[in-house]
Amino acid sequence: MLPWLALAGALIATVPAMAAPLLLVSIDGLRPGDVLEADRRGLRIPNLRRFVAEGAYASGVTGVLPTLTYPSHTTLLTGVSPARHGIANNTTFDPAGINQVGWYWYAADDRAETLWTAAHRAGLSTANVHWPVSVGAADIDNNLPQIWRTGHDDDRKLLRVLATPELIDGLERDLGPYAQGIDESVDGDASRTRFAARLIATRKPGFVTVYLAGLDHIEHVAGPESAEANAALERIDAMIGSLAEAERTAHPDAVIAVVSDHGFASVDTDINLIRPFVAAGLIRLDAAGRVSEWEAEPWFAGGSAAIMLARPDDTALIAKARALLDRLKADPAMRIAEIIDRPEIARRGGATAASFFVYFQLGAEMGRDPAAPLVSPSKSKGMHGFAAALPEMRSTFLIAGPNIGLHGNLGEIDMRRIAPTLARVMGGNLPGAEMQPLGR
Ligand SMILES: [Zn+2]
User: Fold this and answer.
1) Is the pLDDT of residue 79 over 50?
2) What is the 78 CA–ligand 1 centroid distance (Å)?
3) Strand-strand pairing, 265-266 and 382-383
4) Is residue 370 part of a domain?
5) What's the CA-to-centroid distance between 67 and ligand 1, angstroms?
């Protein structure tokens, strides 16, 4: 590139058209129709509806592979697919089950640049309340990261040492005990909302992320669009109102965005995908039913499963796993919609060293109990993790504020466009993002 062109590029990159403080709230599992069709469904969610009336909204957001919370939240914050950021699933791959259901808590696992870093580069201070993959994240000035282990009270001590020093103590002096990390209830959301609002009022961060888990939790238990889910959403709407009020008091020129990570589908059936791998000699269980040896193992992803091979380049093992999967797919009782291989996983932006991905049909999910029957009634009433192309898996994007340059219905958008759009709102950029900001 000619020197003067490089200079012009640098000027464009460093002199944004607009620069605003930003509040980004995620409502886990919020489907676009929950907001856009709220009146028809009799949902009273005035704060979320205000984004539709006064701001801009996607009719749907197409997500990533897999449509799970942690991969999706990392894409929302980086603008890249799981293949690039590396957050492959919620839980880390743990074939022998020794990690006590550890999740991808640690920002060190995210290989891509985040909006927290972009905000810092744009000169904004940053804060976070409970966003996934935030433990030890660079560029969060006030961090209440998401982590739990067992729900024992010792988890409070763990969070205290992983959070920004003194932050929890100061907020708890004003507000009482902070929600435990393992608490995914709407009451937990209410606690985090109070802490976030207080943090915004006292420290006035230029960019703040807030994550609310309660709707997803209830959609799993009671199903999407259930009375319980609707009641949860109405409570969460009030939380959006109080967060927006705190943000606009701290920064009258603030932009506020509400996102979600995936849609939801009703489920009624658990498929025990472990069992046929045991029968085929690809997994060995000990007397207690735990995995003692494995060559190929399904990695739970809700409405799908990644198939991991101990030797991913062993052609004989690949062929053996492929033959087993083809045989399972031929059995209608297994409810398998599609099996994709490594090149297709890569084409869809899926992370991982997975050798195959098994997508279940809507209504079925992978069961977690290796001792269960092959097919059984599901414990959950709602699930995600199904193919991102399905309308049921679409998620939400709402944005409002001065000078955002976006109005009304933005149509169907790709999730990877959200982060670069928000970086631009803050007067910054995310050079590594895979797609252009909205409005360009
Ligand atoms: Zn989620």
Assistant:
1) yes
2) 17
3) antiparallel
4) yes
5) 8
